[in-house]
Amino acid sequence: MRLCTFLDSGTPRVGRVEGDHVIPLAAPDLIALIRGADAAECGPPVPLAGITLLAPLRPVKLLAVVRNYAKHAEEMAQPIPPLPAIFTKLVTAVTGPSGPVVRPASTRELDYEGELAVVIGRTTRNVGEAAALEHVFGYTIVNDVSARDLQRLEPQWTRAKGSDTFAPMGPWVVTADEIPDPQALRIRTFVNGEPRQDGATRDMLNSVARLVSWCSAAFTLEPGDVLATGTPAGVGRGFDPPRYLQPGDVVRIEIDAIGSIEHRVVAP
Ligand code: MG
Questions:
Q1: CB neighbourhood size of 193 (10 A)
Q2: pLDDT on residue 71
Q3: CB neighbours (10 Å) of residue 119?
Q4: What three-state secondary structure class fits 184?
Q5: CA 255 – ligand 1 centroid, Å
Q6: Ligand 1 center to residue 248 CA distance, Å?
Q7: How far is the CA of 87 from the centre of ligand 1 (A)?
Q8: What is the pLDDT of residues 97-142, one digit of tens each?
Q9: 159 CA → ligand 1 middle, Å
């Protein structure tokens, strides 16, 4: 099942995507639906082509992982963390799958990170790796937008990774039953149509199950929390010279079995 949040005459609504239509559902928002709110159909199908998709949900926690692919660590000239290194992105960074991403005046080194993102399905604490995937509601796409200069200059990444619009998300959440193996997906990122990242989730240093288990050993995961699972090689910083995003650029991220998000970069 593909679940989205879309604008219906200016009001956000939850919908189920069927082919090229969206069927509105009764639940007030997607986190409520994950928590068990009414998923009954509630209105006639709406053509997908004519609607604005929003971020499928606004998580309470937006977690992300440092260098979870060896080739990405290599291109960043940084070591592989000996244990999974988790940070948080501010939820105010979340924006819709079509963005835009605003390049703030604070950076001249804006970069993309195409990532598979996990949506948590139930309250989770101390889950073992073997059972961790049972706690996953579904999967979506996140661009972990990063300001490399701020990342380099500031010891915490709150500004570097948390500026407004630094987390385009969508286009929808695909439920976990449709993605039985999250380690078998291809992730590709394009900038202005040019291929930049072409990775495989099997190359994650820490699997989705391990990451969920690892986080839950330290804190409670709640329905609708989102965990971005790291980016494969091919970010702008990895080129020589680096190829950072400029206003006007268009970033497209595709992941097997989910779909794609595409957004423009704009000046403030
Ligand atoms: Mg990242």
A1: 7
A2: 97
A3: 26
A4: coil
A5: 15
A6: 22
A7: 9
A8: 999 999 999 999 999 999 999 999 999 999 999 999 999 999 999 9
A9: 14
How many whole angstroms separate alpha carbon 249 and alpha carbon 266?
8
Q: What residues have CB less than 8 Å from 45, skipping those under 6 apart?
A: 18, 21, 22, 23
Between CA 80 and CA 78 the distance in angstroms is: 7
Q: Is the pLDDT of residue 50 over 90?
A: no
Q: Which of 23, 52, 54, 21 is nearest to 40 (CA)?
A: 23
Write down the pLDDT at residue 9: 87
161 CA from centroid of ligand 1 (Å):
9
Output the 3-class SS for 146-169: EEHHHHHHCCCCHHHHHCCCCEEE
Question: Ligand 1 centre and the CA of 36: distance in Å?
Answer: 30
SS3 50: helix
Cα→Cα distances 188→24, 25, 26, Å: 30, 31, 34
Taking CA atoms, 56 is separated from 3, 28, 70, 186, 193, in Å, by 7, 12, 30, 21, 25
SS3 44: coil
- Ligand 1: centre distance to CA 5 (Å): 24
